[in-house]
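Let's sit down with a protein and look at its sequence and fold side by side. Please make up or recall a protein chain and show it to me in full. Label the sequence line and the structure token line clearly, so we can match residues to local backbone shapes. Go ahead whenever you are ready, and we will take it from there.
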Amino acid sequence: MKILVLNPNTSDSVTDKIAAVARAAAASGTELAFMTAPYGVPYIATRAEAVIGGRVVLEVLAERQGEFDALVIAAFGDPGLGAAREMAAIPVVGLAEASLLMACPLGRTFSIVSFSSRLEPWYRECVAWHGLSGRLASIRMLDARVADVGRVQAENEDLLVDLAGRAVREDGAEVVILAGAPLAGLASRVRDRLPVPVVEGVAASVKVAEGLVALGPRKATEGSFRQPAPKPATGLPAALTRLIETGGKPPSRA
């Protein structure tokens, strides 16, 4: 089983954190590969930046077709997830969706805790897109100054734990999601400091991807993620042009 874990941000330090968590979570027979976005921003915090990250996801999907059994989009707002699922013949898993779904068996309500209030509208829309707004107790955010996104969790660990504790006490959260790829690994480190389960999003994403590959679902021929019709494309990179002009049909294997 081969899984590509894509960080659609440009921060290699964040990819390193993602990789450490993913490798610890993966089953012994799972082969993981990791990739950092070749362009974009150090961390996605706005809808506009999410659109850029979504294009990275589609380009990588186009360039690496046929090499992997599943793709993990390792950014919490799941940039490009719907588009990738339209075009991909393999399972595509979003960090946010996997975190939310893993929270549901652990409690009736969950709170999302992260490091920047700028993320809140996008995260709230992401929860709604996944149909889980009714389970959301709250979104609580710091207003952390992010000079180096690779250090944001280390510099704000105690503040994030305190904020998560307030979500439990004041908002009724029965599960906490420490959200965002820059916080990869934090949930495992602070789990014993909180009175409710804490979801480690990267680990959740890897386990969901492994499960989907094992199930071997077919590509939908009806519904919103069915294979799109081929159409001409102009001015796009060659691999992305080929993806659109073939309607996402994977290349034949020798």
The two ends are 19 Å apart (CA to CA). The beta strands are 2-7, 31-36, 70-73, 92-94, 110-114, 136-141, 175-178, 198-199. Residues 2-95+205-245 form a domain with the Rossmann fold fold (CATH 3.40.50.12500).
